Request: fold
Amino acid sequence: MSKRNILLAVVLILSVLLASCQAPPAEPQVVEVTRVVEVEGETVIEYVEVEEEAKIYDGQSINFLTIQPHTVSSKALASWFEEETGARVNVLVVPYGNVTEKAVLDVAAGSGEYDVIDYWYPMLGTMVENGVLLDISDWWDENYDELGFDDFLPTYEDLFTEIDGKRYGIPYDGDLHVLYYNKTILAEYGFEPPTTWDEYLEICQTITEAGAADGVYGCGIMGAKVPLILIGSFLNRLGGYGGAFFDETGYPTVNSPEAVLALEALITQSEYALPEPPAVAFDELLGGWLTGNVAMAEFWTDLGQMTDNPEQSTIPGEWGVVAMPQGTGDNANKVAPINAGFGMGVSNLAQNQEVALAFLEFASRPDIVVKANTLVGGLDPTRTSTLDDPAYRDHVSPELADAIKEAHNFAVGWPTNANWAELQEVLNENLSLALIGDKTAQEALDDTQAQWLTILGLE
Amino acid sequence: MSEQTLPNPMPQGNVVSRIMYSRYTRLILILVFAASVLLPIVFMATTSIKQPIEIRESGAILPTRGIFTENWGRAFANVPLVRYLFNSTVVAVTSTLLALLIAVPATYSIVRFRTGGMVLPSLILGTYVMPPIVVSIPIFMMTRIAGLTDTLFGLILLHGMANLPVAVWLIDSYIRSLPVELEQAAWVDGYGRFETLLKVVIPLIRPGIVSAGMICMILSWNEFLFALILTYSDVSHTFPIGISRYEGEHGLQFGEMAAAALTGIIPIYLIVLFFQRYLVEGLTQGGVRG
Amino acid sequence: MRAFFEKRAPFVMVFPTLIVLLIIAVVPLIYVLRLSFTESTLSAPFKAFIGFDNFARAFSDETFGRSLVNTLFFAFTVTLLETLIGFVMALAFQSEKRLGGVVRTLALLPLFTPPVAIAMIWRLIYDPNSGLINHYLNNWGILETAVGFLGNPQLAMPAIMLADIWQWTPFTFLLCLAALQALPKSAYEAANVDGASNWQIFRRLTLPLVSPAVIVIFLFRFLIALKVFDLVFILTYGGPGSVTNVASFYIYRVGFTQFNTGYAAALSILVLLLISVVTTFMTVGRDLILKRLN
Reply:
């Protein structure tokens, strides 16, 4: 090696080392600027008047673990909170799929990096079992009246927060499935939106058989092998046929006749759905729906706004929404599956518990909730009053607000027990195998039931 | 390899060799190769200037609804990409230097002096066999005990150590192909073992070191799992983490993600271009001329 | 002082490596071994010693069995194809000076693209309704209806393999090229003087000389391929059915979404053993091949 080369190498190493040593302190922890938020409508939002110098948590800070899709709303909350209390909230963002592992790993290793944690509610039991979340039952009771917790949608109130009679968080982002339909396509074929899965199948089959050559399909079904997605699609039907994962005593009933009917319906419908259901996740379904090539889609309540955005959609204003269809048979039922939803809790290792709880309090205040629910890219309502709030109704369209309100009359949630993380893997695997024809519906659900019994120790 | 040592350009022998060694076959091969490598990248580039709806609507390579540059602005506005690129560059370059610094003498010692016998080489190999998922938990604990979570330094150490087996493996065959006589001559001339390594061996295996370094750098640049587990904030998030942050609640921002990915390719590409010059230089000056 | 180091030079040279191995291999391995014999969750490791229960469970775990088969099938196929293509391309490039240099630099692009972005772009390519492949096949009249590559049990694995081959062939190519260029020139000069044909030079000279390096490249790439994770995670999540469920993905699900670290550890140990056996066979195979070539 020549001297020049050695010199070059040394300079390079030194500069890099220097850069790596100096860089971190040079910038504050979080440098992103939050998008400014418009809140409109007639609501007058009253802020608690706090004097400049007397902010209660000046100089304090907490860390808030949130998921990427909540970045906008979590950062908005953080900046509103800082404005009011003086406490700095560092929003630490991780991808959707990694939030549980980050939270559990943090506690397992005793790091205590996070004070407030944003969690997917079916993992609540797992989080509690792993000691991630602080028992905030006392706090809950103390604030119940003042903060109007009875205003939380009853379907979310316990489901998102309670394990074995103890409270671990507040509902943060609600969401359930409704059935969207493309008004233009349905009108073209002279169909009304379906009220039963049989009608759904008929509509789907008719449209697909006529339209598939032009790329138009009667329905889109998300069957990708991700628990959130595939189990969601299954639950939409399971509930409709009157089945459930467990009976009242907690014994698994995943291979009940209703469940088999539901899965068979899913498989039959898939034959006519936007190809290929086993690989259709959010993006694939959105691709079909937003381009006007799918007549019916089960989706979360944010789809309406997405569809009305001309940058993202070719069919603004052409959508309608109804509740999930019912099944057939004696136990047929109307349901609205809560296929996603998030709570917000305090870490067991929170370094600043006081401020963390104050942040929870802040985030559950009715005025703040409305503000967060009317952000673009914001959260979905967790409070009954929000659904009647003019600002919110204006934001999402009154039609959708009413559909959500109605759906809550028969909403069903996912299990949240500590075993669910393991149970859902088994179910997910078997559903996917049934969807591609490796197993029949009966076999897949029998196998699931058998493995669930083993896992639950109920053999 | 210099010109006069190229294989004889006149096709001779059987049909297979005639086809294999025809210049045209070669050119076609190279062009097909280049086209298939470039197609997805070009598609990514055009995706970055398509409207979100167009990405969902059509698989045509070129945008049909006009050019939409907002993806680029949003890609930078929504995620602190520059910061992440800086972090990634620091981690990739420094961890590679660390890996090489440890690997070169070790490989030399293993090959030339049979240090560690059969055990050491297979242990090093074994290290690399372990799926990272397996060791992530104890690694996380150790990093935490050392107080190095959420620091670039921690990530540098970890990537450097994790890529050590790669470096050893790749350098191994280069040292093996060196005639031992060269070193013996150096010893006779009164060189010590360290001096021999530094002044005789290293210059000769420079192509090997550079290509091993490039591979280590690429592996570090793309590493996701440890970067995800060991970092919390923008201070130490790396580029692959940044790329994974273009997800909406239900669906990805493909256009923004494509813009971000392209942005990230550029700096590492410059680094490699820089080293490529050394690679070529090393090949022409080096070489064993017995 | 200097004499002291000089005398122990071989040891001094490997010493830092030993420390590194201790940190990233020995300690974690002991930890994982201990875990595998216990009932453990992430937050409560070593709850109870349960002997070989985790291993027994693994042997009756169908999903795990399938994931092992998938992993080996995947790794072997892509490694074989990538090494082959990489080697042929390296041969072709070796004597193309100018054009070769440009294309060679371009060929590195897939390696610098983060796997997350690669998977994203392949998702767009494979999409049945708005994907690149379907778009052009439909436009050219080759296909009548949309083909869902990732949702089709027969096509999902090949689709992932193709993306992997795209991503990693530059890797084998680059290494093969470096190996070819490191060959001693004196031998070629002698052969040229003797007037040997190109095929003879290739068969008698290049192949035997370069094959040890190529086999190392094959083995090395094989080891990386066994760890395939990102593409599966983003493209198919192991589906449809269990067609693309690979071992590292399955272990991830057990360890990091179910937090059953005891069982995940046992699975890891089994994977480790299997890989060691396979690698040993391959090393033996390498020696046999080398013997035949010479």
